[in-house]
Design goal:
- The structure holds two protein chains of two kinds.
- By secondary structure, chain A is of the alpha/beta class.
- Chain A has helices at 5-27, 29-47, 50-59, 64-84, 107-116, 122-134, 156-178, 201-209, 227-241, 265-273, 309-313, 333-352, 355-371, 397-406, 415-424, 431-441, and strands at 89-96, 187-192, 216-220, 246-253, 277-284, 295-304, 315-319, 325-329, 389-392, 450-457, 461-469.
- In chain A, the strands form two sheets. Chain A has a nine-stranded mixed beta sheet, sandwiched between helices. A two-stranded antiparallel ribbon of chain A has the order 7-8.
- Chain B is α/β, with parallel strands linked by helices.
- Chain B contains 14 helices and eleven strands.
- In chain B, the strands form two sheets. A nine-stranded mixed beta sheet of chain B has the order 3-2-4-5-1-6-11-10-9, with helices on both faces. Chain B has a two-stranded antiparallel sheet with strand order 7-8.
- In chain B, α2 (59-67) packs antiparallel against α3 and α3 (74-87) crosses α8 (218-226).
- The longest helix of chain B is centred in the first third of the chain and has 36 residues, at 2-37.
- Chain B is globular, with a radius of gyration of 26 Å.
- Classes of the chains: A alpha/beta, B alpha/beta.
- At the A-B interface, α2, α3, α4, α7 and α8 of A face α1, α6, β3, α7 and β6 of B.
Amino acid sequence: MPAEPLPQFLSSIKLKYVKLGYQYLANHMLTFLLIPVMVAAFLEAAKIGPDELVSLWRSLGINAIHALCTVLLVVVVATAYFMSRPRPVYLVDYACFQPARNCRVPFATFFEHARLMPFFDEKSVRFQVRILERSGLGEETCLPPANHYIPPCPSMEASRAEAQLVIFSAIDDLIAKTGLKPKDIDILVVNCSLFSPTPSLSAMIVNKYKLRSNIMSFNLSGMGCSAGLISVDLARDLLQAHPNSYALVVSTEIITPNYYAGNERSMLLPNCLFRMGAAAVLLSNRRRERARAKYRLLHVVRTHKGADDRAYLCVYEEEDGDGNSGIRLSKDLMAIADEALRSNITTVGPLVLPVTEQLRFLASLVARRLLGSRGWKPYIPDFKRAFEHFCIHAGGRAVIDELQLNLRLSAAHVEASRMALHRFGNTSSSSLWYELGYIEAKGRMRRGDRVWMIGFGSGFKCNSAVWRCLRTVATPVDGPWSDCIHRYPVHIPEVVKLL
Amino acid sequence: MHTVLSVDAMELLWTIATVLFLYSSLSFLWKAFDCRRNQNCYLVDYVCYKPSDDRKLSTELYSDVIKRNKRLSMPDYKFHLKVVVNFGISEETYGPRSIIEGREESPTLDDCDDEVDDCMYSTLDELFRRTGISSGDVDVLVVNISMFTPDPSLTSRIVNRDKMREDVKTFNLSGMGCSASPIANDLVNNVFKTRKRTLAVVITSESIAPNWYCGTDKSMMLGNSLFRSGGCSFMLTNDPSLKHLAKMSLKCLVRAHSGANDDAYSCAMQKEDTDGRVGFHLSKSLPKVAVRAFTENLQTLAPNVLPVGELALYVIRGLRHRLRRSKETKADAGTAVRVNFKSGVEHFCLHTGGAAVIDAVGSALGLNKYDVEPARMTLHRWGNTSASSLWYVLSYMEAKKRLRRKDRVLMLSFGAGFKCNSYLWEVLRDLEDGGAWEDCIEAYPPNP
């Protein structure tokens, strides 16, 4: 970990810690004041015997009316207090799209198709295959039917067909799992970056499932691979404002219209990495859902680095010299992801790290200030003490490697991300849900466990969500992993030799 | 001695406990009151987009563009022109540069970016200048442009250009049609309910350059004739300290989505024609669908907007009508009971979907020529600018100095899906800005 970027990172959070400390003090002042008072009262009461206490009580001259009024006041204030607290947001259940086997794109198929495409030159074919060799993807990732044609036919009709296939399958599975009645859905948030027809995909869902006319629907687009967490954030805000509601969040990426048919290297990467996928998530703030909900949403933190030009341009849709449009990924991507993550964890850290870790971090800050940067090594908070499970966006092998290094995670912590990348490829905003499914399918999710979901996306954004598991998830688990979990984890070699 | 000391100590403890209890109740009540204060949604200001004059799309220029499409026959060409003439638009409406310069069949990504950038940046700069608020103070940014979604999103583009903060909440809405403005407002309103002293900027516009239809399907040709360039940026806040700057306050917002009905879902749809060209299909059942969605919206809106007296009158009239109908023959049972919306609303911003749409909605609400004039004039001057049309209508009213303190303004729009959304504002102070109408308001309404 390079030392130079750290001082800037540290100085920016210094003020944050001071502010947070003051906020903590202010919010809990009552507790800080009440504790000594209660301790004193208890000590006093302990000194006096029970008879004396009773006579003291009588001497105060409280009659029934006083007592009743006090009790009433306490009840009123307590009720109002509990009702004003932010409503908890529960994740009742979720379902991921399981692609059919005939959509598989094994390496040999990918290679053969690339060779037969009329628009790729020899160099582009070899480049794509080399990327695939090192990508960490497996042989079972899937592309939509339209992309199996040579050349692919990216029509609007085919794109809509893919959208209907992936979204409706995921929602049907969710309905089967939860017994949800479509008419009960109050909030619908759909995110799909690169395909946005009119009427929107949210209108398509309203039409298919005959949702209510007063539904609050929103269709987010263009927001990249971290849009799944943006949708969850929006659903959470809506649930805070509307009690007793259900929110359906659908995250997907439609591959059909986005095949890059040119030879610009920086734009060929998405062809190799992006695969078909979708997830449907049911959130609710109904108290009765607490009993069967799987997770509770604790925090969502969003960080947008768009103000920095380098960050803004690192994932960019543009046209190449021949007019083919595609998404260009810059070489700075890893460095920018790193910076975005640091900014995000400066906000997440104080919310989730145990007090000891925060104190150690603060102490190291102070020590470095006093003794100078050379005298004291920077202390990186140990996030493994705050979370049991990590779901890191399966953007590519390099992203997972980088985060494993930065957060000092073990191979076991990033196993879900690596295996999801291997089995399903980069499914963009829904990848986090496939990873969560892996952890559950492996029987590792226990009650009380905390999960950290980290998503990265164009803009450049880094968004994270913190969940707490409310009930141990029993195996076997229905879902896209049910037929293959017994084969995982697999060893993923550095390079799978194809050429 | 021990007992006396204990009694004193107990009294002291009792006093302290009472004080703390009072403090906690008071602070909690203050929090509840504070929360209530932040429930309001104020419109601080808005700026409508005025493209440069070289982008004016006169009927002559428009017919040149149509003639360039060699696939069209003479009847098709005549149909195009008939629609434009009957639609009620003037020679002053604006189109994208790529279409005027002859690139309508193959616009580049740069053309699309330029069209949208020009609108967003010019209106945003003007908005920040007029309000004196800097881009670094923006907490929430919403952009809605239905038919163009580049990656990174348009919200990211603005965050980059205006150097907004890292914790800014951005939302890029897309595909939500001509009634997306109330939807963006609804989103912001909901975020306001969870955060105090928040400032939001919403940009609403439409992208025409990449959506020009080059085929021969009549149902898709209408889109070319109707849509014109326009946009609006507006600033919302729930901070009570900015109330003195604000123009209007949001009172009520109603959304009605009739997408569950198949006809409604498919009546306005972007799809490919038989030759594989993408266009915006408008079906013949659109008016019927619009009426249904409109009725549904009004059923929820009316109780929130109308005074109790008018609602009571409506119920009485309804009962009388029903009694009369049961006695009379079928032939007499055609008239429906009308509600007088003007009892609860002073000004009406109607979506400029077309002259026929404005007239139909106007007559359903019981409006006269004066009431529909802003919508009619907006259609004439700007064409159908999709989601931002409501703001041009509002700007007309303001330029004509019609908006006085305590007046209520109803904004009503329709959109693909099929949705009918409406919202009610209350004017906070006498408004007088000319806005985008500044240089031409004197010429309106034009002499017949």
